[in-house]
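Sharing in case it's useful to others searching the archive later.

Someone asked me privately for the predicted structure of Large ribosomal subunit protein bL9c, so I'm posting the question and my answer publicly. Question first, with the sequence:
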Amino acid sequence: MPKLGQEGKAINVAPGYAFNYLIPNKIASLATKGILKHANMLAEIQNQKKEIIKIKATELQKQLREITKISIKKKTGDKQYIFGNISSKEITEKIFNYIGIKLDKKKKQIEAPEIKKIGIYIIKIHILDDIIANIKLQVLPTNI
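And my answer, the predicted structure tokens:
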């Protein structure tokens, strides 16, 4: 419950509220030593998982920083405007060719400016909330 606290946290409430409403409706349970120990163990396991994810994300960030630039060829028209657009799928395929790691587009957010002309652009890849990698994207014409 939002006003009472988060799951796994021990709080103090009035006995009547606990025994007449929270416990019968299975919103809360009595905080015994065993339940508190179990909740602490689950919280520690969750913190360890978060730490492992952060370590893997920093490793991925280091690998992405090694990429100097990615080149994608597109058909161009007048005044060096490209036909179509460059999708995040194309960018992830090029990254896979460089480092051999397939980026999961559900977990990693690729932030690119609107690309309409050939040139060099900066692509931001959000790996975690606080871990971001920047990659240069060079759009080349195929008409040459």
